[in-house]
Amino acid sequence: MSNTIAGSRPSIIPNVLVKAALTLGALLVLLPLLFMFTAAFMPAQEIIKMPYRWVPSRIQWSNFYKAIAGNDGNFVFIRNVGNSLFVSITVSVFTVILSSLTGYGLAKFRFKGRNIVFIAIMMTMMIPFETIMVPLYMVVLNLGLQNTYRGLIVPFLMNAFGVFMMRQYLQTFPGDILDAARIDGSTEPGIFIKMVMVNSGPALASLAILTFRQQWDNLMWPLMVAQEKRLKTIPTYIVSFAEEKFADEGAMMAVALLASIPVIILFITLSKYFVGGSAVYTAGKE
Fold this sequence. Notes:
The chain has helices at residues 2-39, 44-47, 62-69, 76-108, 114-123, 129-142, 149-153, 160-170, 175-183, 188-197, 201-216, 220-225, 234-243, 249-276. The protein is mainly alpha-helical. The protein is globular and about 70 Å long.
């Protein structure tokens, strides 16, 4: 009995160390979020005081009013939130649909040059966005899309990562089921919508969350394309708010907290699908 207990100790110690390391990592990740949350309710002078007090001495609700009203009191924050939601949701929906179609074709249809097409799409992932940003801006400018929602949306309707993600996931989709549906007389659009899309929830939710977050945090492109205040998004609002002369730290933390809420809600809503879709990255190796 003692030998059994002694033999189990070496396996217990690594498990404890792994859990301790994971707990420490989670705390380090959550620490900035906790700071943002507590600082959003503090007076500005209390935030910069050292050592930092994690519990506010008094709740400063005016921080949130300043965040929404802006330094000039025009409440453009509400319009900017609407712009970000419209752009992010539209891009996410189209990216999911187009990436699914392309990934399905590359995964389940055999045609000459299929691998070459896939490799060419993957090669575009190696090109930094900063490299094509100026040429892309010139295209948008020449097409008359500057200061329009189309200029903010159209360049991001498709991305190589989404194609890769859906292709890898759909490679594991049973081909026998698709063949049986064709024998039963189902059309290809019907098979794709009623069978492939319906049974690809984890991958679709993962791609939707990642695309939404990417567009919600997009700063450089809206700064270039949208000069009018009515078209600015949340990241551009945060930048302009932080640069204002009379902005204080408490109000800036309140802006950051409010800007994080939609992404947090989306992740909590689709978290079970997102976790299930983590297998996408290792799928298709059979």
